[in-house]
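TA notes. Do not distribute before section.
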Amino acid sequence: MTIYLHLFQIPIPSKIRSKRGMAMLSSLVPGNLTQLSSVACTRGNSCRGVYFATLLNSKRAELQLNSHIAMASAKTFENFQQQKLVWLWTKSKQVMTAAVERGWNTFIFMSRDRELANEWSSIALINPLFVEDDKLFNSENKRVATFSEVSSPQQLQQLQPSDEQAENVVINLLDWQVIPAENIVAAFQGSQKTVFAVAKTPSEAQVFLEALEQGLGGVVLKVEDVEAILELKDYFDRRNEVGNLLNLTEAIVTRVQMAGMGDRVCVDLCSLMRPGEGLLVGSFARGLFLVHSECLESNYIASRPFRVNAGPVHSYVAIPGGKTCYLSELQAGKEVIVVNQNGLQRTAIVGRVKIESRPLILVEAKKDSDYTDTYSILLQNAETVGLVHPCEGDKPIKSAIPVTSLKVGDKVLLRMQGGARHTGIEIQEFIVEK
């Protein structure tokens, strides 16, 4: 009987890097695992993952374990990503309708506006809350939240999460600023209460939801404009993509050829990438290659873990919302999807784009030798540019293959999806790309 010692790492979302979070993570993996180290830290002691090991008595057991690893990675995001709540404060019937259609049905009214609340309750399933003094009551006159208006640092310091009679706290910053938002998160950290802040724009709401990374438990969006509802919902849709597993396909390289000069794009992100992570890029939207970041150490150039040398200007790159855009369209402030070898995705903000003329190399690949569709990508012909290699069971994981050493028969990772696109959105249409 063959015994395998299998060592692997499960990535940890930053929001759960705590003793309690680590303990809960351990419950997600198979019972026969032995934890070797509580944390795996990168530079700057930024803890990124947990290392586990197990003894496997068969190749089949190893394959089952690999399946558990993928599921555990997905569950860490699913179980630990804090649920963010949205309440609405409006007198616009159109805003109410748009919010309910998007799943938000808790509305705040002043106590004098009960007639409006009753009217809306007759046409939509809503949960009305009424402001009376410094409290919020539901339609059954049960207190559900405290309500505080804050206009000075002194009032902010006096906020205490000690009121046991209400599970929720609503704070209205009359003089809105970013730092008070962070102070609220810090003041209520560890509290069992759900803390809401009143936001007058979707961008304010985003700051409250992301302040000090953890963010508040919810926001009260006080608006009279339907566009604000649509914008905030779009933000939540993009946010909820984080942690989803994309289905990546193992492909076989069928052609590697020098292609001359072209304008290539370096994408510098506002986030650091780890080995095995990169951007989904390709000449055809129906098949995007996972292009590795420049995070790996090299004899030729210093590590740049924020950069992906992504390819020429015509290439597609995956962005949130299941969309694509051209590399030439990327600019500072735009969001892209960062994906790792297991298909785990997250969003990152583009900080800078560099377009320079460089020698290119053409790479073509197929799903297998019998597959008719060919996928292609052009990349700068440089040792620091590579495609992500698939994970291979008990063998050491090689995260990237430099394009300078890529050869026919090598295996790389692809994201296969629908082919036709209009302004980056997938459509049902006949299309031929070659």
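Switch to the second chain here.
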Amino acid sequence: MQRDNQSTPRGFILTGFSHFPELQGALFVLFLLMHVVTLAGNMVIMVVIGADRGLHVPMYLFLGALSFSELCYTFSITPKMLSGLVPGTRAISFLGCAAQMHFSFTFGFMHSFLLTVMGYDRYVAICHPLRYNSLMTSHVCVRLVVASWLGGGLLGLLVTCAVFQLPFCQSHRIDHFFCHVPPLLQLACAGGEVVATIVNVLCMTTLLGCCLFILLSYAFILGRILQMPSAEGRHKTFSTCASHVTVVVVHYGCASVIYLQCKLPHAAGMNALIDVSYTVFTPFLSPIIFSLRSKELKNALWKSLRKSFVITNANFWPGSSLSCRSACC
């Protein structure tokens, strides 16, 4: 009997936001709208960067990779979270749960690595402008993106293997809206505390390492900016970093909330509400921040919209195509 209890479960039940039945309808609408905006924002960023040759520079290559990682991260969590807000659709298979954990950690780690790479790119551009083209070549940029992918995939695989090698003998109801490590470890028969320590050390080491590298990059950048004689030059230089700094603050601010909240007692279901800040809110804000704070990206976006509008009008009014071209010229 004990042996059967420790067998691999066929699947799990995600309780999600079942502790707040009166909020589920409103949460479904809210999260769906945020999900659509997140997908649309990141897809627009990738399309604009790909279409505008003026944005084919390292900074926007990394931004395109960041947007792609956020798309994948969102797809790994939000659809299942939305289906969990519909009664009767909260089940997830054992392999599906493992896959969700793997991809959420993979793209979460990749996000941190790419933010670090973007900080290094700004450091080279501001502190070593004459050597920028030789240091940040296309080959170097591609290697940095690939390294971020491989690093995220490896760490995601390590975390997933560490968790899912445990025997599960407790209830198969996961008190969360996706296959998150802490609620899953509560279902383990043995070894949960050891795995929790390993995962926490791995995550904290990676996040703190990336954060310290970013802080070091901006310490040199700040020193360089303060040496500039004109206030206009300082403002113009810092404006190229503003969107990245804002996203870093949001990313690590929400991540710190996730890890610090484990130390505090919460009412049933509160952990899920708190984790929304990192899993839904951060990906939602990121494309908005980059779109609003990046002047080159905004200009490219408006240029693409105007071009699309002119082409649409020319196709709709064939006789006016010549006049449209003349007006554009």
